[in-house]
Amino acid sequence: MNEINEPGPMWVVTDLDGTLLDHFSYSFEAARPALERLKALNIPIIINTSKTYAEVSDIQDAIGIDMPCIVENGSAIYLPVAMSTVLPDYFNEIQIVGDKGVKTIGVERESIVAFLHRLRESYGYQFEGFSDWSIGRVAKLTGLSVQQANKAMVRYFSEPIVWRGSDEDYQMFASQIEAQGLMLLKGGRFIHVLGRCDKGQSIMWLKALYERLDRGGRHHSIKMVALGDSQNDVAMLAQADIAVVVKSPAHPFPEIIQPQGEVIYTLADGPKGWNYMISTILDRLEQSNF
To answer: Per-residue pLDDT averaged across 130-157, rounded?
Structure first.
C-alpha cells in the first residue's frame, strides 16, 4: 500500500465523480496507467470528494492506496491516528474513529436535515434529498448499485438535494440557508447543503499539516496538482500549482476564479482526460519542468 510517510515533492489531489471516475459508469479503468505510474513514483493520491468516507474507503482499496482523504465536499478530513504523536497540536479537535483521526470542518448532517425539513414545511419549497429517499431511489438517481447507494447514504456532514421549485423560490431558499450558517454547493448531480467549508479549505489544512512534519529540522514545500470537473471543485482547483479542469459530458467547465497557478482544460472526459493530463504532468516532472 502507498502511504504518505513524508511530504513528497508533489501531491495529486483529485475529485472522484466525473473526474477520476466516469460520470456514467463510475469506472476509473481509463485512468489506471497514470494511477500505476503515480504509485510507482510514490506520489501521494489524495481523494477530495463529495462522496462519503464509506464510499472513498472502497475506492482507495480498489485503487490500492492508503492515505488521508477529504469527504463530503471538505466537511471532514480522515487521517492516520498515528499522526497525533507527530503533531499533537493539530489533533486537539480530532475525534478518533477506529484507526482514523477525523478532523471535522463542517456541520453535523442531523442538524442540516432538520433545518431543511422545517423550511420545506414552513414555505412549501419543492425539493427532495437523500433523507427522503430509499436506497433503491438513490441507486436509480445516481446510477450506483444498491450496495454502493447504501454507502452513499452513510452521511455525517451534508445532505444532497434536487431542487424542483422555481428560480424565485430558490433564491429565497438560498438566503435562508446562508442565514443559518450553511451553504449550497452545486455538484455534478446534486446541490449539496453543508456547513461553511469547501474542498480548498480542507486540502490547505492537510497540506499545512504535512509541510510541518519535522524531517531533520527542514520544512517541506509541497507542489499540488488538483483535478476536478464541477463547481464544487473550484475552491480546490484555485489553490493548486497546476489545476486540471476535467471535461464533463454533463455540464460546462466551471470557472476558476483567481487561480494560484496554471490552469489546464482536458479535451477528453473524466478518467480519459485525467489519465492523459497526469501522464503529461509526470513527463514534465521527469524533465524538471515542475
So the answer is: 96
